[in-house]
Amino acid sequence: MDADFLARPAEEVAPTLLGSVLTCRTPEGTVSAVLTETEAYSGTADPASHAYRGRTPRNAVMFGPAGHLYVYRSHGLHWCANVVTGTEGAASAVLVRAGRVVEGEELARERRGERVDGPRLARGPGNFCRALGITGEHNGADVLSGPSVVLSEGEPVPAALIRVGPRVGVSRAHDWQHRFSLAGDPTVSAYRLSPRARPSAGS
């Protein structure tokens, strides 16, 4: 995978990231997961994007070159990881919503709890980051060259196996069809409409 592959609009990149592998190396060990669910956020054109109102110190990574990780804290509780896409200066990113752990399952289980079964280890964006050990320290990390977080190609996913639907948990532009997942995969998170959701127009 290279920068040109990611230098496209988020809604084009998001479905093509399914099947890719994200690896995080920490002092505790290495955990890798195949991406099974993603969501696209289109920057200043997207009311649900952190970049909708322009550049800030928090979202600055989204405006940088494709291939970096934008990590933020959700509701002050969970870290969430996004792969920056598009061209430099035009914010665009793909949220990693879920994955299937394929390396380092024991470490992922230590982080998530012994009672959490395999399919739930990295289900949901917060759980994904916790399982892999991704934190705010990884904000801005280059996922194409590493070394701490690396995104690599996996097995291609046939278009027939990709499901498209509305985004989860956002109050604005929630009905945009920018959520992509592997059909029937048990690691994919459940759809939940935000109680603050309101009707919106979009693509």
UniProtKB/TrEMBL annotation:
| InterPro entries, per the entry | Formyl_transferase-like_C_sf, MPG, MPG_sf
Q: Does the keyword Hydrolase apply?
A: yes
Q: What is its EC number?
A: 3.2.2.-
Keywords attached to this entry: DNA damage, DNA repair, Hydrolase
Query: Enzyme group, top EC level?
Result: hydrolase
Give the UniProt family note: Belongs to the DNA glycosylase MPG family.
**What name appears for this protein in its UniProt entry?**
Putative 3-methyladenine DNA glycosylase
Question: What organism is listed for this UniProt entry?
Answer: Streptomyces sanyensis
